[in-house]
Amino acid sequence: MPAQNNLISGGFSRRGFNRALTLLAAGSSLPFYNEAALAQRGLGGRAMPADAVKINSNENPMGPCKEACEAMAATLPNGGRYGSGDVRAAQQALAEVEGLRADYVQMFAGSSDPLHRFVLASVSKEHPLVVGDPGYEAPARAAQYVGAETIYVPLTKDTRVHDVKAMAAAHKSPGLIYVCNPNNPTGTVNTKEEIEWLVANKPAGSVILLDEAYIHLSKATPGSYLVAQDKDVIILRTFSKLYGMAGIRAGAAFARPDLMRRVQIYGTGFLPITSMAAVNASLAVKDLVATRRKVIADIRNETFSFLAKNNIEFLPSDANMFMMNVKRPGGEFARLMANKNVYIGRVWGAMPNWVRVTVGSAQDMARFREVCVECYNA
After folding, report:
1. Containing H/E element for 324?
2. How buried is 228 (Cβ within 10 angstroms: 0-12 exposed, 13-18 middle, 19+ buried)?
3. pLDDT over threshold 70, residue 11
């Protein structure tokens, strides 16, 4: 088995690393951001009306499936217990689904927690973080906290996916190369062959952090088999997106044991028994992924047809979000939409005239269509 690559060095001392991970294990806040926090920052601190169309933070309005809701309700009387058995059951069930050994799977309260942990454990002043641009901002904010550089690699100009060759060449000794697939915010997908090329050609000693938060929404090949092959790959998963459990907090990381120990030794704290019950119930519903993927894809494709009919440029997405070109500063367009009580996503500096829109319910997107052209032409 490959030796552990210990990159806790340079500007971030072991004492500082220990303190940061201890705070995380205790449930304390660090100056990082998850999707909900970033969405709130985009609102400028304003409260969102209760009747707003909320298509700004990649949530799934379907919520948990019926079986998950029933399992959580049944679990509530046991709330006085820690429920470690439910955690082990979720770990084993997810391992079986992914074709992994159980010790290659670690459950977390969402995927933001392990994302920050692995960044903290793997980057330093000498070993930077490499990310696609535009991409999910949270890893870079964690790297900044430990004094590590983040190297931003533009997405490909034609397909707007991660430029894996440029990422592999970005630095001689990165700590982590972060790939979100499908990518947030573009919803675009790198192929299995492109991911395999990056894993085979990355700088020696570096690790690929493959964030598959949106993988269930796409037909892309999951990367679990790379973990099963003991590659230098860590995979993040969440039940916040397709499974509709954003507020319930359930996620997981997949990695070979020596990589997993980078964060396991600091503990994860006890996990909510309700979320673990919901995970087990959701995984037992065999057609849930395919059914929900189709529902979201149908609504997304209807929206794309509308945008194309109105000559509004957009990026074809394979997830529950997409980007559209509003031909002006994106924040200005978002404010116009908010004035109509429709709240869309934030703007990335690499694409300042584009905005990200979550694919909401059929009703949400009907309202989006009603006001979109009016604001676009304003």
Report:
1. strand 321-325
2. middle
3. no
